[in-house]
TrEMBL record:
It comes from the Eukaryota. It holds the Pfam family Beta-prop_KIB1-4. This is KIB1-4 beta-propeller domain-containing protein. Residues 11-301 form the KIB1-4 beta-propeller domain. It comes from Microthlaspi erraticum. InterPro entries: F-box_BR-signaling, KIB1-4_b-propeller.
Length: 326
């Protein structure tokens, strides 16, 4: 889906055709920056550093507390202190300094969790029912920062810049980091070393159906010819070693939208039309920007390391990837 004003466009990769549609309320929100989506919901922030959730198709809106709210937080109080003003000023300088974000929402109950990272250095979260934002602080090691996050089953998984996987448990009243044996990745950093012909573009994590963490690298290979590739890694829980894998899930029925944070059931398992299992869907910013393909939207097949590009779908502004639905 691409949003370039009213109307917007739905591109169906299976049929290789586009359809115009109208996104309720979004045309009145042109000053908003979309950080992430979950299901039909978007996490938006505007130039005044006001966060809110919006249902893409119904227009329902949920406002989140201001960064300078004075209520009691569940980890470190984000009141109207000098520190909070410093964070707010950094955001006002450039909203895009938010490097990673997570949104989880239960469509049935309305419960939700939001987390985002400022400049790779500061991690903030908000859970429905909190009075204010919380700054989550890693325990133990002196981590340099944050690459990415994923959320599943009341746990926030954080991929740090020193290549560790850290876990916060949100099932408690106060979000608490799981240390030692409670975190199977605690003493096992992701130790991939790129070769001279490999150039990493993005580092992301996702949680599979089994609950295991996947590390996904978007990179360019310049060996015999230039290729855009995705590598997927999973830790062997017995040896503690990270191993490259060539399938998304053990049942070979999962696929991944790059940056989505969790795997999803593939529309097609074997053969047939549409996106099959063990595929990675991606959009413009997910691959090296010097690619000469006119369409910056594609599907990567892990088994063959090949990319299927749709027709010339030019993406200039906001875009999202959705599983196809009737």
């Amino acid at each position: 889906m691409t949003y370039q004003g009213d109307p917007s466009t739905l591109f169906d990769s299976k049929e290789d055709e586009s359809h115009e549609t109208k996104l309720i309320e979004l045309s009145a929100c042109n000053d908003n920056h979309c950080l992430v989506r979950s299901g039909n919901w978007l996490l938006l922030v505007n130039a005044s550093i006001e966060f809110h959730l919006m249902n893409l198709f119904t227009g329902k809106r949920v406002d989140l507390p201001a960064m300078n709210s004075s209520g009691r937080s569940k980890h470190e109080n984000m009141d109207s202190s000098r520190e909070t003003k410093k964070y707010s000023n950094k955001l006002k300088e450039n909203i895009k300094c938010i490097k990673s974000a997570v949104l989880w929402i239960n469509e049935r109950t309305g419960d939700y969790v939001v987390a985002w990272v400022l400049r790779q250095n500061y991690l903030f979260s908000y859970k429905k029912g909190d009075d204010s934002w919380s700054r989550l602080i890693l325990q133990g090691r002196d981590s340099r920062g944050f690459f990415d996050m994923a959320y599943k089953n009341s746990k926030l998984y954080v991929f740090t810049t020193d290549h560790y996987i850290r876990i916060f448990d949100f099932s408690r009243v106060f979000p608490k980091e799981e240390e030692g044996i409670k975190n199977p990745y605690w003493n096992h950093p992701f130790d991939f070393v790129e070769q001279p012909w490999e150039y990493i573009w993005r580092r992301k994590i996702a949680i599979g159906k089994s609950g295991e963490v996947l590390v996904i690298l978007s990179l360019k290979e310049k060996k015999y010819e230039e290729k855009l590739l995705f590598y997927v890694f999973k830790m062997n829980l017995e040896s503690g070693k990270w191993e490259r894998v060539y399938s998304i899930g053990d049942g070979h029925d999962e696929m991944l939208i790059f940056g989505h944070g969790v795997t999803i059931r593939a529309p097609v398992r074997d053969g047939g039309d549409g996106v099959k299992s063990d595929s990675i869907c991606f959009v413009e910013d997910d691959v090296w920007e010097d690619s000469d393909h006119l369409s910056k939207c594609g599907v990567f097949d892990l088994a063959t390391s090949k990319i299927t590009w749709p027709k010339n779908l030019l993406i200039d502004q906001t875009h999202w990837c959705f599983p196809r639905f009737a």
